[in-house]
Amino acid sequence: xxxxxxxxxxxxxxxxxxMAVDARESARARGLSVDAPDRPDFRLAVVDxxxxxxxxxxxxxxxxxxxxxxFDLGEGEGGGGVREPRGPVPPTGGxxxxxxxxxxxxxxxxxxx
Length: 113
Hints:
This protein is mainly beta. It contains 1 helix and 5 strands. It has one helix at residues 20-29; strands spanning 9-11, 33-35, 50-54, 60-62, 66-71. The chain is rod-shaped. The chain starts with 8 loop residues before the first strand and ends in a 42-residue tail after the last strand.
């Protein structure tokens, strides 16, 4: 019985920023597969964008390894949270303070010499 030759190692490509279909193709081209733990319908996903991956890009892994990816949930799918700042409130004054109206211009009065 001969020992099995280990699979050569490959570098994990950067998948963050790619659409699902492009991430699958990029990984497949290097002999890797992609899995999305939070998306059971991942094989059907096409235009969702990858926002996180594990292992990180550039990591050497054995060929046929799995790269886990996570997607940005689109508008109306949750996960967005509150986007406007809640505090601290800017200090009073500055542009918020109302300026007083200037006095009307006065005519210059000259005295005789």
